[in-house]
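Lay summary

Proteins are chains of building blocks that fold into shapes. Our project writes down both the chain and a compact code for its shape. Here are two examples, one after the other.
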Amino acid sequence: MTSNSTRESPKIFLCYAREDFERVHDLYTLLKSLGLRPWLDKVNIQGGELWEVAIENAIATCDFFIATFSSLSVKDPASPNVNIDLRSTICREDRRTASFLFQ
């Protein structure tokens, strides 16, 4: 049996548009300070790692998926990375998802 002190904290994938990186990085920092394991591409993808593969693996192994939106990001309906990430997570029925709107 695993005790709460040795159990890994949830892994949280942060989905965002480039325009919102600073705000999402603040959210990343907050989640990390709370002892959670947020995943953010610009922080967690290592040099030489294939970007698309790293994102797909992070989505496949996350416990929670947080999609963030802002007035800037929703103006560009062609934001391909957010759309790909959202489609990937919708395929998993056991994933807990949340959305945040930055103003």
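And here is the second example, written the same way.
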Amino acid sequence: MAAGLTITGGLREVSARLDRAAALGRAALACAEGGAEEEAVRITHELDLDQLIGEAATLLAAVSLLQRMAREHPDWAGVAAAPG
């Protein structure tokens, strides 16, 4: 993400990572349903499914922190809610 972290920008990044994770999950499921379960698990590890999910969780925590900070410091609210 760019240096100016915003709630909107953070949520956009969460969404992008979850979209990629969902696509990877669908691909792995297709492999497993086709009888290639070991290949499906290998794909999830090699393409870092767990990293995408972890990054999404971390970004969501950052967005929550920005929201709390904006509430506690109204003069920061414009910065946290600015388009990202």
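What can we say about the second shape? The two ends are 9 Å apart (CA to CA).
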